[in-house]
Amino acid sequence: MAATAIPAGKPRQPSLSQLKAFAAVAEHLHFRDAASAIGMSQPALSGAVATLEDTLGVQLLERTTRKVLLSPAGERLAARARSVLAEVGALLEEAEAARAPFTGVLRLGVIPTVAPYLLPTVLRLVREQYPRLDLQVHEEQTASLLDGLAHGRLDLLLLAVPLGAPGVVELPLFDEDFVLVTPRDHWLGGRTDIPREALKELDLLLLDEGHCLRDQALDICREAGRTEGAPVTTTAAGLSTLVQLVGGGLGVTLLPRTALRVETGRNEDLATGDFADPAPARRIALAMRAGAARAEEFEALAATLREAVRSLPVRVAR
After folding, report:
1. Structural domain harbouring 291
2. Integer distance in angstroms from the first to the last C-alpha of the chain?
């Protein structure tokens, strides 16, 4: 598709809706998926991108009957368009924060191994103390959450730390121990003094790749002296499935203590065991962008959350 030359005179400027449409197509490389992602009709999205090409005087996309590709110019300008949209989003966020704290939309990202166990506390807190806050929850794995935070798709994260991510500020909430979950008749079931070294030879069941809890469990096993060749079975996408596999006698697993009541409370085929002090543990925190316009608001939310979780089996961060 040849780009139309821009007439002489005052240059036109692209609109935000045109940039948003182009950024969506650049991400999805599919007009229907892009239109659905930003809530725009496909004809309107196609027209917005065509108008943007006309305005800029460059061809951004290569269209065929089967697929959409970015042109070389499109590759360069897609990154610039995302940057412009992120800056506009930051401007709106700052204006919103300036008007009043704890109002408007707050897009909270949560990892799957925290969401079912901590969200009831978070939602109750928001409902009771911040009724004007429009909390929108997104459950995703850590890498996706960090990407969403960096690109402005998410405002605040609730996840396990440390992250080691540049430009991210962590607001610690609490520490919680890991508990060994075993079949009911397992020799470690019911013990309160399990040494970490016991993990060396156990048939350990873990979550799939991408879950930070899997990485934490493997780190604990390495600290206990477990060798790389020791059997590790990965067959579960979530903790509920993992626990069912343990109940079926396929092995043992590690659960964060906040998950115990939900995941093991009704299963008579399971037993649990506590590790000897110091027990392996994880830290849960809120995470925000460095320099976030709502930083003071997020810090206040973290302080309120620390008080709210005191009834849970955790050690509140100071």
Report:
1. 101-174+282-316
2. 60
